Amino acid sequence: MEVSLRHLKRPEESALDVSRRLQKRPRWGEGFIQAFLFFCGAVSILTTIGIVYELGKEALLFFQMPGVTLLEFFTKTEWQPTVGRFGVLPLVSATLVTTVIAMMVAVPFGLGAAIYLSEYASEKARKVLKPALEVLAGIPTVVYGYFALTTVTPFLRIFFGDAINIYNMLSAGLTMGIMIIPLVASVSEDALHSVPNALREGAYAMGATRLETSLQVVVPAALSGIIAGFILGFSRAIGETMIVAIAAGAGPNFTFNPLKAAETMTGYIARISGGDVAYDTPDYNSIFAIGLLLFGISLVLNIISRRISARLREVYE
Questions:
Q1: What is the domain extent for residue 249?
Q2: 3 state DSSP class of 130
Q3: Which residue in 168, 163, 172, 160 sits closest to 255, CA to CA?
Q4: pLDDT of residue 20
Q5: Within a domain: residue 72?
Q6: Cα(108)–Cα(110) distance, integer angstroms
Q7: Rounded Cα gap, residues 63 and 313, in angstroms
Q8: Is residue 293 part of a domain?
Q9: Residue after which a domain boundary falls, among 64, 87, 114
Q10: Are residues 121 and 37 in the same domain?
Q11: 52-87 pLDDT, tens per residue?
């Protein structure tokens, strides 16, 4: 210690002076950056709290209205607030049908694209194909909505004829699936790309083919990230508004037939909030109750995603 201080000492300077000089000096710029980053994090948390507060406050007004009960809200199959029918199941069923259809499209195509980009495509092809795939994510959803109405539905009527309505859940779900493919593919490809090459090389050394290595080694190793991408896509499909508002229909209908028209939760919120609805009426207050329900579903999905990712996470050195 004396040797190191001897090198640091100035003429006629004691060891105590050297230690004081080596102490951390305050940097006002660093403190400002730290305070700004804390402010950014606080804003996001306070925004979430504010959203929950406003939704909860307005939803409470809805459930305090005469004839509205939680039991009827979650169990009845008729949704017509203007005449005192408050069963939300028609909106929930339409949301689930369109979401399941969307995931049936997005999961296989998104995962297939991710496996190709990660395991088969050359680096040059990957740099071209991945941005081209992500272009789909930048298309406005209103364009997807009219694409479903003017292109997908006429195409489906070739096969189903008059059995499929002009407004139907099938075309809306298929189009949502196309829209979600880049999201699922991007998250899954990042998870696959993060798997160490040592696992691939070990599989090749054992005589495995590229397909066997991809499906039996790489995909299981990246399973936590892939499932997180699936749940993220599921949440995105549940919260989609414009596609279902344009292509799925504008009337509550408790049915699981994808060929029929039915209104989703987000479609109902868009229709009521964009119309001439008076304040403090059943229709107006109901959109906050449905919004709170959507928020709760998204929160549950995020919690499930984190639990699954933590349980299936593989750590490599």
A1: 79-312
A2: helix
A3: 168
A4: 61
A5: no
A6: 6
A7: 42
A8: yes
A9: 64
A10: no
A11: 898 888 888 888 888 888 888 888 888 888 888 888
